[in-house]
Amino acid sequence: MRLIRFKSGIGARYGISGDSGVRAFVPPIATLGTYLALSTAERASLATEFVGPLESLALLAPVGPHKNVFCVGRNYLGHAEEIARARGIDLKLPEVPTFFTKAPTAIAAPGAVLHLSAAISSEYDWEAELAVVIGTRCRDVAADRALDVVFGYTCLNDVTARDLQKAHGQWFKGKSLDQTCPIGPWIVTADEIGDPGTLGISIHIDGVTKQDSNTSQLIFGVPKIIASLSRGMTLEAGDVIATGTPDGVGFARTPPEFLRDGTVMEVEIERIGVLRNTVALALG
After folding, report:
1. CA atoms of 274 and 25, how far apart (whole Å)
2. Above 90 in pLDDT, residue 86?
3. How many angstroms separate the CA atoms of 31 and 44, rounded?
4. CATH topology of domain 2-60
5. 284: pLDDT confidence band, cut at 50, 70 and 90?
6. Hey, which end of the chain has fewer CB within 10 Å, N or C?
């Protein structure tokens, strides 16, 4: 199932996207938490109404809007290697996942124009990521049952202000500017994805492929990430975990490449789809 969130005359609504168009839940469901609180039987019995073809709707990020986004840094071998090369340091792989967060105000919609300020950063970069959506409140989840707490998966672009990241000496500020976390276009339920560790993942910048990898290259796979993050810490239904980005980011290229005004970014993940956003870079 492809669960989407879209604008309607009565506010945000959730529905199901299929080959024949979009069917919204009746009565309307406005939040992901409301949907996830239903039992499997209750979800199956929900009525729907046809609201139109997908292209006629204004999509919203399928998560949030008030959810923190947990992220894993340097979680692809190729990305860890390119960071070490770019910084002229020896490669040292982490023994445990490196976690940080993106503020919920960074979340942006699929298809949205991302309004970024050149006065704040001159080094906006792209990062294609597989995002995990937690389906149930949980804590201390064992790795061998971690996939049981996953509701589904979606695409995420961890847009990063590299100069702010460097200046502040940590990741939160440079990765939490407004509109720097587009997510979508929908959530594909876990039953349709199967093994999240075998998915092709790429990003195309103005039609040119810059990242092209597979989630099999993750240093810490989805089960290990969930087990480590949930140890002693409660995860809520609807929480989002961005699992890391492959090699091919802009700052590590020779010469470095950064986003420009009008740049079109397309994150593509196998069995999920394409998350497309355009950059509007203003001087103010």
Report:
1. 24
2. no
3. 17
4. SH3 type barrels. (2.30.30)
5. low
6. C
